[in-house]
Design brief:
Two copies of one chain form a homodimer. With about 325 residues, chain A is an alpha/beta fold. The first copy, chain A, has nine helices and 17 strands. The interface between A and B is large, with 38 and 38 residues.
Chain lengths: ~325, ~325
């Protein structure tokens, strides 16, 4: 029986602040699985790194119980089939699954989706995967943008944000994109946003709020970041503004378990009869096909730009996760093995 | 021509903290109006005192520009007709209007609604007026309560809150009512709430959150108060909770212009896919009849309890307004002239 050198990142310790390598243990051993009926042995080539992973490491329950300790870090992956005991998969097939931070594993075929050989496999982790679904339904269903309205996106150069920006533009909206480097802002301008703002150019929320007000105020806010950017938007809402909470990445270094203080803003909701809605990708999992019917043709026609920051090396997974909270990635963060 | 001693409270100075007599000037002079076509001279008997008045004194625009200085304080009133140049009104008629803090005024008949002679005139300022409309549409349309769900109401013994409580009970909900004295809590228990909590019994938001969690968590939160009560509810939400922001009375002593700090909570919206919506009575003004069709028969049948705290004396208007922010009233605060 052939054996493989299986490497795994085991989640061993709950981070209190920034997550890093010290919260994981790298294991490596020979692996010679006996495939059960309908199982497939895969070798992972692309591993997803997403901000939600840090939420699942919070001490308190979030949308579920915390990620269990001493198990392989969960993650979406793209892999190739090495051995197959399942008629739907043959050796060499490219598959997407949720198989975590490990190089090899045996998995039941029902847990895998076969990828077409003619598409960029990174799309399965981005525009045609979970981030695309989050961006599409979060913006269109919770945000309800109308043509001509102003959509503000925080974390606009990220995996979800950069798609929200483009979906809003396709919908005829004016887009104000917030990101943390001038390079990101330049890219967002290339994508066609009317205003790309580097939030680091603003001393405080009032300063940013003044700028947002001078640009006409906010109809829809798609929030990936929270913190002072959100404080500023709350002061700049237009009547019946819709706020979509997709992430609060500025708060993930411990602020979820022990919330930071910020200015109270609920009176603004009253003044503007505004709404806030939290959205989570999994609530739309059963509508993946619907998203693909909208977005798939745009991707095939090259009308949607998707970017990945690809880090080479399985060993770099924990630090790539930590790097999300420093804004190191543009577009989707992926580790290639 | 008959003349009258007209007294008026003129709003002269913007409060920075608690509003009081020093922000008003009491004027008194002889008044002998010449009625124009369709005008009516009224003598006011009941004057409404509402928390929203303090919002309109904020420095920054709210849902409109600030209440103008050096004008009569705006307010809903009940009055009787002294003279009439309008075929729809005769001397002695009881009328509701928005004629402000003054004892007498001439007003166009189109600005007045005639009240039936057989109803308690305080209802025009409460259950069958603006507070009733706010409670009904805020709860039913924004809160969308389903039978069996848990509705938490802050400021539950107030003009709006005590109606929300009763509408929620009629809707088959379990109600947790929050108020600030044991007398108020006893009254709320008489109204039938499952749990009446005196928020002053809780040291901090975590303590209150633990209690709310032990009672099963929150499906709908109707918020009149804000501050630490709201902080606690945000930690106790159930999946798809709906939060209705009707008021933030704990923040009205200056916290609207210069927001206080509180714990960030938007990650909870994500965890629970919860929504927040701000509601304002005026958005439902055109649907007053619809509210009356629902609530009017309950009032006529004695199925809704409405209470007023009636302060005797025109001179006490400013301090009655300030007293709202100390929780002095149970039910609707009214000054009788």
């Amino acid at each position: 029986m052939t054996s493989y050198q299986q490497k795994q990142w085991i989640y061993t310790q709950r981070p209190l602040g920034r997550v890093s390598e010290q919260h994981y243990q790298l294991k490596s051993h020979r692996y010679a699985p006996q495939l059960a009926n309908n199982e497939v042995l895969i070798e992972t080539t692309l591993v997803s790194v997403d901000p939600y992973m840090r939420i699942q490491q919070s001490e308190k329950p979030t949308w579920e119980q915390p990620h269990p300790l001493n198990t392989v870090q969960g993650a979406a992956t793209v892999s190739k089939v090495l051995l197959s005991n399942n008629d739907n998969f043959k050796v060499g097939d490219l598959v997407a699954g949720y198989t975590g931070w490990q190089t090899h594993t045996a998995v039941h075929g029902s847990e895998l989706q076969k990828l077409a050989s003619d598409i960029d496999p990174t799309t399965a982790l981005g525009v045609l995967g979970m981030p695309g679904r989050t961006a599409w339904f979060g913006l269109m269903e919770a945000g309800k943008p109308r043509a001509g309205e102003t959509v503000v996106v925080s974390g606009a150069a990220g995996a979800v944000g950069s798609l929200v920006v483009q979906f809003a533009l396709k919908n005829g909206c004016k887009v104000i994109a917030l990101a943390g480097t001038s390079e990101k802002c330049e890219w967002l301008e290339q994508l066609g946003v009317q205003h790309a703002l580097n939030y680091k150019d603003f001393d405080n929320a009032s300063h940013l709020a003044d700028t947002l007000a001078s640009l006409g105020g906010v109809d829809v806010y798609f929030d990936n970041v929270g913190g002072f950017i959100t404080d500023a938007v709350m002061q700049s809402l237009k009547l019946h503004a819709r706020i979509v909470i997709c992430g609060q990445i500025s708060q993930y270094d411990g602020g979820l378990d022990n919330p930071a203080q910020g200015p109270r803003f609920l009176h603004q909701m009253l003044y503007k009869r505004a709404t806030i809605e939290g959205v989570l990708a999994r609530d739309y999992s059963h509508r993946m096909d619907e998203m693909l019917r909208h977005v798939g043709p745009w991707v095939a026609a090259g009308e949607i730009t998707f970017k990945s920051t690809i880090v080479e090396g399985f060993e770099l997974l924990p630090q790539t996760l930590g790097g999300l909270f420093e804004g190191q990635n543009t577009g989707k963060a992926i580790v290639r093995i």
